[in-house]
Amino acid sequence: MSQKYAAVKGMNDLLPPDIAVWQHVERTARKTLLRYGFHEIRTPIVEDTALFVRSVGEGTDIVGKEMYTFDDKGGRSITLRPEGTASAARAYIEHAMHQKEAVTRWFYMGPMFRYERMKTGRYRQFYQLGVEAYGVAEPAQDVEVMECVMHWLQELGLKDVKLQVNSLGDETCRPAFAARVKEYFEAHREQLSPDALETLSKNPLRLFDSKEEALKPLIAKAPILFDSLDDASRNHFTEVTRQLSMLGVPYELNPRLVRGLDYYTRTVFEFIAADPVLGTASAVGGGGRYDNLISELGGPKTPAVGFAMGLDRLALLLNGRSDALQHRPDLFLVSVDAAAHDEVMRLARSLRHQGLAVEFDARAGSVKSQMKRADKSRAMYALVLGEKELAEQKGNLKPMREELPAREVQLEDLARVLKGLG
Ligand code: HAM
Fold this sequence. Notes:
Layout: H1 19-35, E1 39-40, E2 46-48, H2 49-56, H3 61-66, E3 68-71, E4 77-80, H4 85-94, H5 97-100, E5 104-113, E6 125-134, H6 139-155, E7 161-167, H7 174-186, H8 194-202, H9 216-220, H10 231-246, E8 252-253, E9 267-273, E10 283-289, H11 293-296, E11 304-310, H12 311-317, H13 322-325, E12 331-335, H14 338-353, E13 358-360, H15 367-377, E14 381-385, H16 387-392, E15 394-399, E16 407-410, H17 414-421
Parallel strand pairs: 1-5, 7-8, 12-13, 12-14
Antiparallel strand pairs: 2-4, 3-4, 5-6, 6-11, 7-9, 9-10, 10-11, 14-15, 15-16
Helix pairs in contact: 1-6, 1-12, 2-4, 6-10
The structure holds histidyl-adenosine monophosphate.
Histidyl-adenosine monophosphate binds near residues 122, 130, 284, 288 and 306.
């Protein structure tokens, strides 16, 4: 008996017709990001394991539990990228971008891998669109990237997504805050699970990011970082929120927002969808400022801010639009006999070269079966060619969807007529 193969658990095939939504999301992103002057980069899907450990942070779930890490045949430890910021930072440093330009603005799209517990909107291979802006420390850069996401979501017609913002301070004020948080949770040790106790000993701020229901009431009463911000971080955040308001970008303050990665400094933000289709996987994207990452990875001190959106989740939100987004050929050609089939092939070739989307059934077969296929192709028009049509060099364009009358057309005029109709 032959073995049956299936995709690896948590990894999905993307097939037509559903892929139309993905293409729409990606097309809209490219169009929007170009308006903002972001340029696409493509980095390898695997990197040295150490890059992610150093960037994302040893105490995070991603590094601790979720990475696809293995030795290659040369005995090097490599990891399927769990996110894109570390790879982009590595590329920024490796290509000495700071020597080439004062400000670098990149975006990337592609698969990421995290060995997570699966559910709707959470997969082991998932897709992100990420943006990273290097070289600007000013709040205006944080605001521009957030505003850019809101613009893209608006272009997609996704109005019910909320922007939540917070500040995590920086190395000058965060240690004191971490100590306060540690003290607070220490005082409630008896309510903590073994997992939570371990997080407390390694990185207490990570407790804010815990998925444990039992911790929620405790988190709700924990100290708030905002109260511990030093003047520089506080001013930065005040300016970020002022500029968001100035531009009319709606946002909410979420003082408990810490994000699941260690590299952030100051501003952090998430985009939360209200649509119940996502269940608890309601964060469609997130990001923030990370002013120390480039220098921690061996580059020059370079301020940076960016975000990544989860394309799987955006596609789920847009699923209902799949039908309207399907590709529709301009014409489906149908042949009555073998001579007409040759003409169908010739005509299809010529019309395609003139920029039209034309399909036919290479198996030919009965007119009835070809018409069925024409219907399935969702073509705007069908044209049946037989002896009479070939002799007269004209035929009847039959509308396939709309209730329009058929119209007679000279075959040599076909391209012009279809372009006029389209
Ligand atoms: P992140 O919050 O880990 O941030 O991921 C960003 C988005 O990717 C999430 O909001 C979610 O929509 C999607 N996502 C994450 N994990 C999964 C999963 N298992 N299945 C489906 N979707 C998922 C980052 O990755 C940072 N690199 C963002 C960033 C860029 N910060 C600065 N620059």
